[in-house]
Specification:
By secondary structure, this protein is an alpha+beta fold. It is 60% helix and 13% strand. The chain has helices at 8-23, 32-52, 65-72, and strands at 3-7, 60-64. A two-stranded antiparallel sheet has the order 1-2. The radius of gyration is 13 Å and the shape is elongated.
Length: 75
């Protein structure tokens, strides 16, 4: 599994966009997979937002390649 340190501000924005896309799905098309994607991206967004608001100047977040792929598939 590969990891990458990414800019937390950019990841926060990407997550918000991905969540917007997921919210646009019709209610009848939302299944368990859709719910799992949404929850995972919400968690990543919360962590990225916290890192972006960090006062120590370290505004990076480490994601696995799978987490990055999940976000990038929905923005």
């Amino acid at each position: 599994m590969s990891y990458a340190a990414l800019d937390a501000v950019r990841i926060t924005k990407a997550c918000k966009t991905a969540l917007h896309v997921l919210e646009a799905v019709d209610e009848q098309d939302r299944n368990e997979v859709h719910q799992r994607k949404t929850l995972m991206i919400q968690r990543i967004e919360a962590l990225a937002r916290a890192a972006a608001e960090s006062k120590n100047g370290d505004q990076a977040i480490t994601l696995t390649s799978e987490e990055f792929w999940l976000i990038s598939q929905n923005w």
